[in-house]
Amino acid sequence: MTLIVETLSEPLRQLSPILALALIYAVTSVLTELVTNNAVAVIMTPIAVGVAAALGLDPRAFVVVVMFGASASFATPVGYQTNTMVYNAGGYRFTDFLRLGLPMNILAGAVTVVLAPIIWPLEP
């Protein structure tokens, strides 16, 4: 875990804290489309906390971003159980999930990245 945090922290130092938060959300969101949300949350939470600490920021907003990113699995039928159940039963195609789910993921990400640091300020 330390290697991942150190590898991510160095390039993120060049970015604003909001962009670092957005990147953590984006990585979490992409992973949750491929793997169950619980596994992604367990993997990404310590990484997000470590990155926040390495950047000298309060980790609460980073944890919230991971939780929302891991829960917003709209773009594939694989990332969440309910998506998988309705995929076959509803006669949906994979592209149906992408077409509707990707804009929903982007909207959820934008709202989360904007509101999380307002509610949980990044500066300790």
Explain what this protein looks like in three dimensions.
The chain has 124 residues and is mostly helical. It has one domain (16-119). It contains 6 helices and no strands. α4 packs antiparallel against α6 (94-119). It is elongated and about 50 Å long. The protein starts with a helix and ends in a 5-residue tail after the last helix. The model has no long low-confidence stretch (mean pLDDT 90).
**What is the residue-mean pLDDT, rounded to a whole number?**
90
Separation of termini?
23 Å
Total number of distinct structural domains: 1
Q: Can you tell me the residue ranges where pLDDT is under 50 for at least 5 consecutive residues?
A: none
Beta-sheet strand percentage? under 5%
> Based on DSSP secondary structure assignment, what is the total number of beta strands?
0
Shape: elongated
N to C succession of SSEs: HHHHHH
| Largest beta-sheet characterization | none
Look at the helices and sheets and give the structural class: mainly alpha
Compute the number of helices. 6
**Percent of residues in helical segments?**
over 70%
> Whole-number radius of gyration?
15 Å
